[in-house]
């Protein structure tokens, strides 16, 4: 992540060097992990004073981190990065709802702080960025999946409506829910397929074809699209690295040529 340097103020430059130090981000990641431990422990020890103190300290550490980054990078430089906007929103919500009367809201905000792990770790950030860029392609696959699920739900409701238990294919929406269970392989053979096949022998064609199309083809398409975008990002990064190396080599070659010219001139003299 490239951050814009601001050398107008020595103080701001020192702060920028601090937030860009190699140990600064690992420290913040450790604090985020500690926040996760506090959230888990609080579910076993609600209202524990030590956990409340730790939670308060963590919140203010995040606030200080936010302030240091805004000072060091400048407001424009900080908010030009979308992940920084995400961080700012999470920390702001933590402050706004810190004394929320509803315990469930407070716990939700504490859990949301864990999401800060995504921008803090480059590998996670890369995956999310690739996933977001693949959304247009995934939209087409989602439309195809919706069509396939709807067709199979209508077929299931039409032919298996009277098969016990009725909650499997008794209506369109229950058929959709059953197909979701089938596509995730959640006890689909013993609980869903076998009871239906016992009464309607040809039903195996229905289930096998849906498994092949819904689980194997569609899910593999989703995985293939995401992996393609991940590979594309790696290719772009490699290309940028090669271009940078080429420029460095060109500059080095020019320096060597200049040195040769100087040496030749010295010999002539």
Automatic annotation (TrEMBL):
Keyword Membrane: yes
SUPFAM superfamilies: Voltage-gated potassium channels (SSF81324)
Entry GO MF terms: voltage-gated sodium channel activity
Gene3D superfamilies: 1.10.287.70, Voltage-gated potassium channels. Chain C
A cellular component annotation (GO) from this entry: voltage-gated sodium channel complex
Organism domain of life: Bacteria
UniProt topology in membrane: Multi-pass membrane protein
Localisation: Membrane
Positions of the Ion transport domain: 21-233
Principal subcellular localisation of the protein: membrane
Residue ranges that the Swiss-Prot or TrEMBL entry lists as coiled coil: 235-269
Keyword set, alphabetical order: Coiled coil, Ion channel, Ion transport, Membrane, Transmembrane, Transmembrane helix, Transport
Transmembrane parts of this sequence: 23-45, 57-79, 85-109, 135-155, 204-227
Keyword presence, Membrane: yes
PANTHER family, sorted: SODIUM CHANNEL PROTEIN 60E, VOLTAGE-GATED CATION CHANNEL CALCIUM AND SODIUM
Name this protein carries in UniProt: Voltage-gated sodium channel
């Amino acid at each position: 992540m490239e951050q814009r340097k601001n050398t107008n103020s020595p103080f701001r430059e020192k702060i920028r060097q601090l937030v860009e130090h190699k140990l600064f981000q690992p420290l913040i990641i450790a604090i985020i992990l500690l926040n996760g431990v506090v959230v888990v422990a609080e579910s076993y020890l609600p209202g524990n004073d030590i956990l409340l103190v730790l939670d308060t300290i963590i919140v203010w550490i995040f606030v200080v981190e936010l302030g240091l980054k805004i000072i060091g990078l400048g407001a424009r430089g900080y908010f030009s990065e979308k992940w920084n906007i995400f961080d700012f929103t999470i920390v702001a919500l933590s402050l706004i709802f810190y004394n929320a009367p509803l315990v469930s809201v407070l716990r939700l905000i504490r859990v949301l702080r864990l999401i800060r792990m995504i921008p803090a770790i480059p590998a996670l950030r890369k995956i999310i960025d690739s996933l977001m860029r693949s959304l247009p392609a995934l939209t087409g696959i989602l439309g195809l999946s919706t069509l396939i699920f709807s067709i199979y739900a209508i077929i299931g409701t039409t032919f298996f409506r009277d098969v016990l238990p009725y909650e499997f294919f008794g209506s369109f929406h229950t058929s959709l829910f059953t197909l979701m269970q089938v596509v995730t392989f959640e006890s689909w053979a013993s609980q869903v397929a076998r009871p239906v096949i016992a009464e309607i022998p040809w039903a195996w064609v229905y289930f096998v074809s849906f498994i092949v199309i819904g689980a194997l083809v569609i899910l593999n398409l989703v995985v293939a699209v995401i992996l393609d975008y991940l590979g594309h990002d790696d290719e772009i990064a490699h290309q940028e690295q090669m271009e940078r190396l080429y420029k460095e080599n060109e500059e080095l070659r020019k320096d060597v040529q200049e040195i040769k010219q100087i040496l030749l001139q010295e010999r002539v003299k």
